[in-house]
Amino acid sequence: MRNITAKNKAKELMQKAYDLDQDNKTTQSRCKQIALLCADEVFHTLVDAYPSKHQPHTFIEYWSEVKDEIHKK
Question: For the whole model, what pTM was predicted?
């Protein structure tokens, strides 16, 4: 993973969601939903993939922060 802040990752995910729409009709609210869905999937994949004793806490915390940043948008 690149060294990118949770805030910037949230912005990047929202921008990628916006960029998918060739007609530029996707609202910011919809981009937020798409970005949150993506971040949530990564977060839950990490949580499900590792037993509680062996969870890579830095990754889980990072994606939790990304989700928090998306919610702030």
Answer: 0.78
Residue 6 lies in a domain: no
> In which domain, by residue range, is 61 found?
12-72
Q: DSSP for 33-50? A: HHHHHHHHHHHHHHHHHS
Contacts of 69 (CB under 8 A, 6+ apart): 6, 7, 9, 10, 11
Q: Domain for residue 67, yes or no? A: yes
Q: Which tokens is 60 given?
A: 């889980």
Q: What is the mean pLDDT of residues 32-53?
A: 86
Enter the tokens of residue 2: 């690149």
CA 62 to chain centre: 9
Q: What is the pLDDT of residues 49-65, one digit of tens each?
A: 876 666 667 888 899 99
Closest listed residue to residue 67, CA positions, set 13, 22, 20: 13
